[in-house]
Amino acid sequence: MKKILSLMVLGILTGCGSPAPFNYTLSPASSTASMIPGAAKVGPYALGDVTVPAEADQSSLVVQQSDGRVLILAEDRWSAPLSSHIQSALSVELTSRLGMPPLQNLSSGRQDPKVSFIRVDIQRFDLVPGQYVTIHALWRIRFAESEKLLTCFAKFQQPVPIGVSALVTGQQKNTQLLSDLIAQSLVSRTAPGQATCSER
């Protein structure tokens, strides 16, 4: 009888436990991007820390509701805090487009004149269930062997159906589009299409 009671209590506790969280990534299982013509001439480059709005920079997904409130999805999470996760996703996508990964030693990348250095500031990262997902991004490139500094801004938006997976897939597409523009500007050293840029 004691054994049966113990099994019943264990079953009740297991049933009342919190469900396991779902973990999501901005990096698809395989990138479909191909190398950009002229990428071989880019040389070494480094990708600095990515900044994101403070309210979104956490592991849990943060979605916007129609009444202006935000909702934190405690059981739906990125695989890392959003800022570091976006940096990792951009690194993967840039590697596909440029044929080589960014340098890991960021301190030397910032100071070495032979290394192009990229900074990315995500100014909006919106998840609106059943409507759209948006990324507004500003990036700055200090080119190797040059005093030229290129600053660009672009907006990316995807319509999405209902569902958390749809939100993630939409932001994967936006991240890929952002990566493509950053790679284009790094290769050409000029403003890419679909971006507003200034240089000095």
Automatic annotation (TrEMBL):
Record bears the keyword Ribosomal protein: no
Protein name (database record): Membrane integrity-associated transporter subunit PqiC
PROSITE patterns named among the record's database cross-references: PROKAR_LIPOPROTEIN
UniProt keyword Signal, yes or no: yes
Gene3D superfamilies: ABC-type transport auxiliary lipoprotein component (3.40.50.10610)
SUPFAM superfamilies: XCC0632-like
Organism this protein belongs to: Sheuella amnicola
Annotated keywords: Signal
Domain named ABC-type transport auxiliary lipoprotein component: residues: 24-183
Leader sequence residues: 1-20
Top-level taxon of the source organism: Bacteria
Record-linked Pfam families: ABC_trans_aux (PF03886)
